[in-house]
Amino acid sequence: MSLYERGVRAAHRGYKLTLSPLIGQQCRFLPTCSDYGRDALIQHGPVKGGWLTVRRLCKCHPFGGSGYDPVPPAKTDT
């Protein structure tokens, strides 16, 4: 596991232990937005993963969707 991945996982764990209990468990998506952000950052890196996370957070409003919304797979050069 790279230092970057460990940092992302540590930040995610810190969020889950500190802020998440205060905000509440009301995410309408699966995986949750924080889990999505963690996975997007690890799979796609900070730029694209950050963009995917922001896009996902923008869906989080009363008129937004819900349900299963996984991180798109990373493209590989074959």
TrEMBL record:
Protein location: Cell membrane
InterPro entries: Membr_insert_effic_factor_YidD
Pfam families recorded: YidD
Membrane topology, from the record: Peripheral membrane protein
GO cellular component term of the entry, any: plasma membrane
Keywords of this entry: Cell membrane, Membrane
The organism's place on the tree of life at top rank: Bacteria
Principal subcellular localisation of the protein: membrane
Family: Belongs to the UPF0161 family.
Entry function: Could be involved in insertion of integral membrane proteins into the membrane.
NCBIfam families: membrane protein insertion efficiency factor YidD
Protein name stated in the entry: Putative membrane protein insertion efficiency factor
Upper classification of the organism: Bacteria, Pseudomonadati, Pseudomonadota, Alphaproteobacteria, Caulobacterales
Annotated gene: yidD
